[in-house]
Design brief:
Elements (H helix, E strand, L loop, with lengths): L2 H10 L4 E7 L2 E6 L4 H10 L7 E9 L7 E9 L4 E9 L5 E3 L8 H12 L2 E3 L40 H4 L16
Parallel strand pairs: 2-5, 6-7
Antiparallel strand pairs: 1-2, 3-4, 4-5
Length: 183
């Protein structure tokens, strides 16, 4: 995001932008969670900005800080070759945020991953369920206070496990175009 884009965003959403910054050549804006969809729509649909590609959604856990979490959206303008980082701070006791799955298709999977790993709920998401861990998994493994030594509940397998070694036990010989065996 260029400095002019950051300034334009901060001017237009004076009450919603909590702060702006630049680190390692990446401009970012820290915004209020209530204004997320409105700001994302503005960045996507503004004629000059055109942040039309969602690169990533992730989360950062600052265990001993208030607010504890920051959900991070990395947007890219293909036309302008610029990147924008939008950060949304969330308190530990209020981890719900509006979904943007309908604005960017890629947000569907990104939001599911953030839910699975950090426990951030995305209001309005059509299918918010685990994507990396199994459904019965307890807790959120990327939270800094997750007890790594705790055991997880055992579950019955829905299908028998596959043995990757057994799958490749039988070798199939290919034939070349002349009909003779190869291999």
């Amino acid at each position: 995001m260029s400095k002019s884009d950051i300034k334009k965003l901060a001017r237009k959403f004076r009450k919603a932008v909590l702060g702006t910054g630049e680190r390692l050549g990446m401009d970012s804006a820290l915004i209020k969670k209530e204004n997320l969809r409105e700001i994302i729509l503005f960045l996507r649909d503004d004629e000059k900005m055109q942040y039309n590609f969602l690169r990533d959604i992730t989360c950062v856990d600052y265990l001993h800080r208030q607010p504890r979490f920051e959900v991070v959206y990395v947007l890219y303008s293909i036309a302008n070759k610029q990147q924008a980082v939008i950060k949304v701070p969330l308190d530990e006791d209020d981890t719900e945020l509006a979904s943007i799955h309908d604005l960017y298709g890629a947000a569907n999977w990104g939001e599911r991953e953030v839910w699975d790993m950090y426990g951030i709920k995305f209001k309005g998401h059509p299918d918010l369920r685990r994507i990396l861990m199994y459904e019965e998994f307890e807790g959120f493994p990327l939270r800094k206070d997750y007890a790594k030594q705790d055991s997880q509940p055992r579950t019955e397998l829905l299908k028998p496990e596959r043995d990757a070694v057994e799958e490749f036990k039988t070798f199939h010989l290919d034939k070349d175009t002349t009909g003779s065996r190869v291999g």
